[in-house]
Amino acid sequence: MAVLGIPILENLYPSTMDMWPLESKEFNRNWQFYENLKQGKLTTTKCKDCGLVSWPPRVICPECYSENLEYTDLPNKGKIIVFSEEVRGVPLGFESPLIHAVIDLGVAPARRVLSRIVNCPAGVLKRGDEVQLAVFPVPAMPIDKGKLGTVMFERVFFAFEPVKK
Amino acid sequence: MARHAVILAGGQCKWGVREAHLVDLFQEAAKACFDDIPTLKPKDVDGIIVASSYAGRCSFQVNTAPVIAERVGVKPTSICTRVDVLCAGGSTGIILAKGLVESGVSDIVMVTGGEKLYTPQKWEVFYSELASVDHDWDGTNGMGLPPPFFSLTAQEHMMHYGTTKEQLAAVSVANYNYAATNTVAQMQKPLTLEEAMNAPSVVPPLTLYDCCPITDGAAACIITTDEIAKKFSDRPLVYIRGTAQVCLNSVSANFPGEHLADWKHTRLAGQKAYAAAKVAPSDIKVAQTHDCFTISEVIEVEEFGFCKKGEGGEFCGSKQIELGGKVPVNTDGGLLACGHPFGATGIRQGIEMLKQLQGRARHQVKGADMGLTHNLSGANAEHTVLIYGREPVK
């Protein structure tokens, strides 16, 4: 697996070219968000002191600066407010059609979440359609563990898909 | 005595797909800048601010300011730094330089910006655009390239205000025609409404001419005080009267408006800049607003108060942005036709304002004595406004 033009990068992982988050505990204090996703749950952080629910999850409350946060569930279903479809010229890393939508999950701060619609051909979606959470695997991240060698850390990410009628 | 910041001179290299290195482009821009003011020499400059967001990703060069200072022959003693605010880098450099010269930290600052975005393989810049938005939360949704986001914005403007595709096309026609004789612009061809309406689709309703291109290029300008400027130039002084930079969100999901066509942060930036400059929207004779997409310009003329909210489509579609209209906008061609090397764009806008207010622009607005420039950066995450005038704020 040589990198074209840069033979010294053979079998090396350049995280600066990785389009997915560094989701593991060693590299991300919000690692639990991704663990929750693996269980099929869309979550975010809530401040246990002032009650503010933030999106995306974070490690301090942006309102009262408390570090006393907990994970809380967000709805798995929502409605499409507006969407766009890109059929040609879809960027590297995504498949055609690349569909984006502003989705109302019904509760703050998720009344207008901008996400992607997957498992859906072009030309069938309508405004107001119901969509549900879709969790999918993304490439595992190779972490250098010194004498233990390289450990592959499994990763997932999420989008939404039409609810089958 | 109060020190008042002015833009003294400026220049840019040819923008487009350039057979050149990033540092080559900065050198060309510096030459064009000093060619605009032959009495000023690089040794007179005591500070440099370099605006470049992709130097790290596309040119493998961080800590860019010392590299550029050395290449352009400037030996700064008051400030030597880089700013990265993506599309607003150049404007941010001018804001910072204004503060530095007015406070007395610096006397003469070169603000220069540039990007080399076309790399040996075409995929790389498109892929690297994932770094332009919140990497983990928007990049992962394929939001790095902005057409989908502005498609949603255009659709919501159409839904709420009845804006039409023809009105969007009128923006690209105006801006391409402004650039048709601009020898440093990326696009130098007149455009008809018919051509704009029949262009290939990008992300509906956006078509080819609704979107600004990807551009290599650099620009440079000189910011100093009015009293120092008088020693070097007899041209009318162009003051930076007031500025504002507003950031209310970063992740697209936390967009501050009621919907994607309600640009609360833009409005706030305009209000703050007007207040600082002690002017009203009706005082603005010429504007360079951030036309990364045609819909952007439509919304910006509303949020800056050139017309009522919701009437931007009608305003642009009825030639109010053209010479002879209420507020000519993007008189050098804007981002749509000049191109958009992120860090350089705000400087290009400042240079056009310098020329307009000195009466030496290619498309001169008669009686131009007050102008506004504006940038949007990120996934509509930040808005930067500068107001230039022929007189200082009193």
Describe this entry's structure for a reader:
The complex is a heterodimer of chains A (165) and B (394). Chain A is mostly beta strands. Chain A has one domain. Helices cover 5% and strands 36% of the residues of chain A. Chain A has one helix and seven strands; from the N terminus they run αβββββββ. Chain A has one helix at 31-38, and strands at 43-47, 69-73, 77-86, 98-104, 113-117, 130-144, 150-162. In chain A, strands 5-4-3-6-7 form a five-stranded antiparallel beta sheet. Chain A is flat, with a radius of gyration of 18 Å. Chain A starts with 30 loop residues before the first helix and ends with a strand. Chain B is globular, with a radius of gyration of 19 Å. Chain B has 394 residues and is of the alpha/beta class. The longest helix of chain B has 16 residues, at 342-357. The two termini of chain B are 12 Å apart. Chain B has two domains: 5-122 and 215-232, Thiolase/Chalcone synthase (Peroxisomal Thiolase, Chain A, domain 1); 142-212 and 241-389, Thiolase/Chalcone synthase (Peroxisomal Thiolase, Chain A, domain 1). Chain B contains 14 helices and eleven strands. In chain B, the strands form three sheets. Chain B has a five-stranded mixed beta sheet with strand order 1-7-4-2-3, with helices on both faces. Classes of the chains: A mainly beta (165), B alpha/beta (394). The interface between A and B is medium-sized, with 33 and 37 residues.
Descriptive tags:
heterodimer; A: 165 residues; mainly beta; 5-stranded antiparallel sheet; two-stranded antiparallel sheet; 1 helix; 7 strands; flat; B: 394 residues; alpha/beta; Peroxisomal Thiolase, Chain A, domain 1; 2 domains; 5-stranded mixed sheet; 4-stranded mixed sheet; 14 helices; globular
Topology (SSEs and partners):
The complex is a heterodimer of chains A (165) and B (394).
Chain A: H1 31-38, E1 43-47, E2 69-73, E3 77-86, E4 98-104, E5 113-117, E6 130-144, E7 150-162
Antiparallel strand pairs in A: 1-2, 3-4, 3-6, 4-5, 6-7
Chain B: E1 5-12, H1 22-35, E2 47-51, H2 55-58, H3 64-71, E3 79-83, H4 89-103, E4 109-115, H5 123-128, H6 147-161, H7 165-179, H8 193-197, E5 201-203, E6 206-207, E7 217-225, H9 226-232, E8 239-246, H10 264-277, E9 286-288, H11 294-303, H12 312-317, H13 334-338, H14 342-357, E10 370-377, E11 382-389
Parallel strand pairs in B: 2-3, 2-4, 9-10
Antiparallel strand pairs in B: 1-7, 4-7, 5-6, 8-11, 10-11
